[in-house]
Amino acid sequence: MVPVIQSPLLAGLKGVRHAFFTRQGGVSSGLYDSLNVGIGSSDAPADVTENRKRIGDWFGVTPDALNTCYQIHSAKAHVVEAPWGAYRPQGDALATDQPSIALGVLTADCAPVLLADAQGHVVASAHAGWQGALTGIVEAAVAAMERIGAQRERIVAAIGPCIGPKSYEVGLEFFERFEAERPGSARFFSPGAVADKRMFDLPGFVLERLAEAGVRQAEWTGHDTCADEALFFSNRRAFRAGEPDFGRMMSGIMLG
User: Fold this and answer.
1) Are the C-beta atoms of residues 91 and 72 closer than 8 Å to each other?
2) Of 225, 230, 244, whose CA–CA distance to 167 is shortest?
3) To the nearest whole number, what is the mean pLDDT of the chain?
């Protein structure tokens, strides 16, 4: 079994399985050591296939039933009614009421968000980078869940490992865009190392978006992907190190 991180909130739900996978427990090597699931990476395709199979095995589903999107940092959500196989539509959130399907989200600093209405038998996954978080991917995921029977006041959500507020340095133009589009966002920014930089609290911002969407119970696991090279892939860390590519991790949820 590959190692996983779990949310106490989601782990307490009956009939819901979830996992935030780390970079450990796979077969990839080099920059992608070891559980890289990024189909778009330059990793050996056979290794990526095996890594995704291991995640499917953890959930007890075939790789064809491990559904993921071609992620585009959007606010687009899909309702999933059947296993997709190799099909990957563009979008950044998935929702289903089908017990035979695992919903996956790929990240390497962006925030993976897993949501469940256990009573309504509906689950969802979302990819919340700063762009998706700002433009409404959380609300889109909740709305997709509602279309198939969920009630937002019953939804429980968890944000998995992502870049933390002590690692996410941004420029003033980033800060100014958030303030312009969502006044009051300044509380998610703190001073950077120099005057024209700020530190951004991505998980804190996503938690607020969840609350605004009517999700009453939500938490962040507290893991900073950029700060822990042994456990996590990180786009930001790879860029700082001048590396040509980086691995991607998966987070997943399903009914059953």
Assistant:
1) yes
2) 225
3) 97
Q: What is the pLDDT of residue 91?
A: 98
pLDDT at site 1: 80
- DSSP bridge pairs for 4: 21
CA–CA separation, 53 and 126 (whole Å): 21
Do the beta carbons of residue 36 and residue 26 sit within 8 Å?
Answer: yes
What's the CATH superfamily of 4-164+217-255?
CNF1/YfiH-like putative cysteine hydrolases (3.60.140.10)
* Predicted structure pTM score: 0.98
Which residues of the chain carry a pLDDT beneath 70? none
Best CA proximity match to 63, nearest among 80, 86, 43: 86
Which is nearest to 59 in space by CA: 105, 100, 22, 25? 100
Distances (CA, A) of 21 to 66, 106, 164, 173, 212: 14, 10, 17, 33, 27
